[in-house]
Amino acid sequence: MVKARSLAFNPDTPRRLSTSSDAFQLNPDIIRSHGRNDPQAHDDLINLILEEEEEVIAAHRATIEQTMELVKAEMKLLSDVDKPGSAIDAYVEKLSRGLEKKATAIDALRAKVNAFQTHLREEEILSACVGLN
Fold first, then answer.
1. What element of type H or E holds 44?
2. N or C end of the chain: which has fewer CB within 10 A?
3. Taking the chain, what is the end-to-end CA distance rounded to the nearest angstrom?
């Protein structure tokens, strides 16, 4: 049995826009904020994207390094709590702090990635408007 694919819009699937008017209909706020047929706005956005690309990659590396350090600390924490007479309240407190640090790091990276994705989508729309697609 062949499963039917959904034809609904999926924001995670890249779309190519066929005309500038398609781009305007997709998100008129982007066109208004950047200017229709404004190559300088497109160039400025490209420069921002290039900067953000480096920042996202660096932030991802830093998050991985921080996560690895936190995982090492968690492994030691588990080793310590497995010993007879260990203090469970100290274990839970340290675990909670470690989890909070990981969540904070992931949230910061996620915010950078989301901003970068937004700018990539804006660039696609502006490219269509200035005739680059």
1. helix 39-81
2. N
3. 38
